[in-house]
Amino acid sequence: MILSTPIKIYLGTQIEQSLAVDVLTYSIVRRTQASIQITPLYQAVATAGIEVPMPSNPQLRPQTPFTFQRFAIPELCQYRGRAIYLDSDMLVFQDINRLWQQSFERANHESADLLSVPELPDSGRSPQYSVMLLNCDQLKWQVAQLVGELDRGTWTYKQFVMEMAPAVNKAAILPLGWNDLERYRPGKTALLHYTDMPRQPWLSVANPLAKLWCDMLLKAVADGAITRDTVCHSIEQGWVRPSLIDQIDSGIADPQLLPEPILQRDRHTFTPPHIWQKYLRLPALQGERSRRWFSRAYEIYTRLKGAT
């Protein structure tokens, strides 16, 4: 069966992950001839005026702003057709049209509400719903209603978020390789997922698979899909490590090959936003000078902590 396009893709992301979104988008578009429609979820729900309420129980509140936004996808699609959900901390290496064309029909001839990728048996990781193909014809979700049911105890937080319990008829039958968690198998990995947040390549040079992401960034800049100014803006906002601009200017894809003074500058002046935002909560404290001070203090703290 050949399905019509555009392929609708919704991304779970935040504004500080804008560069990661751009690199992921480039990696998707360059591998397919299909028409693609990629939309960050926070923009989609805001444009559609869809309310994503917070549970009254603090223990049930989402770990990220987009955790609950995923449940708005069927409504965003007007309960018609299908849609793909992805996190933004990913890279795609094969034609995503292959994912789009998967059938919802199961062995028992029932039509699934939602398809996900099975996890490799020897990986030691739990199955994830960070890559999903949603059957919007069947999923009649209203996110406010679902959050209300969560608050009333219909599901635990784990069931709601980690097991996608509101999807009654789901199946982990998407092709293997479309959600490889911190692993890359040449010729087999279709989608690489950078799940180790402190070591995501735009935040740290320590990820052993950082070269793959940085190489994609360099290609996107060379092709004009991402501008140097866009990268500089993310650096100025404190969203990504400063050494990314040095990689672009030098053409060095592997960040481990950067000169030591550049790596040292990262350590002295940059702390990932998910860390400094916890402490510098007021906008007035989130300027460059405050972030530099915090980065230096945090570097000293982590060094002392590692020595104990």
What would you say this structure looks like, in words?
The protein is an alpha/beta fold. It folds into 2 domains: 7-191, Spore Coat Polysaccharide Biosynthesis Protein SpsA, Chain A (Alpha-Beta Complex), CATH 3.90.550.10; 271-307. 36% of the residues lie in helices and 11% in strands. It has helices spanning 18-29, 41-48, 73-76, 97-100, 143-151, 157-162, 210-222, 228-236, 243-250, 260-269, 273-279, 288-307, and strands spanning 7-12, 36-40, 82-87, 90-92, 114-116, 131-135, 170-171, 180-181, 191-193. The strands form 2 sheets. A 6-stranded mixed sheet has the order 2-1-3-6-5-7. A 3-stranded mixed sheet has the order 4-9-8. Helix 1 links the parallel strand 1 and strand 2 (36-40).
What is the molecular shape? Answer: globular
Q: Roughly how much helix do the residues carry, as a percent range? A: 25-40%
> Which runs of at least 5 residues are low in confidence (pLDDT < 50)?
none
What sequence of helices (H) and strands (E) makes up the elements?
EHEHHEEHEEHHEEEHHHHHH
Main pleated sheet: 6 strands, mixed
- Overall radius of gyration: 20 Å
Structural class: alpha/beta
Q: Strand sequence of the main sheet, in spatial order?
A: 2-1-3-6-5-7
Q: How many β-strand stretches?
A: 9
Task: Write the CATH fold name of the largest domain.
Answer: Spore Coat Polysaccharide Biosynthesis Protein SpsA, Chain A
Corresponding CATH superfamily of the largest domain: Spore Coat Polysaccharide Biosynthesis Protein SpsA, Chain A
Going by CATH, the architecture of the largest domain would be: Alpha-Beta Complex
Rounded mean pLDDT is: 90
Total discrete domains: 2
Oligomer: single chain
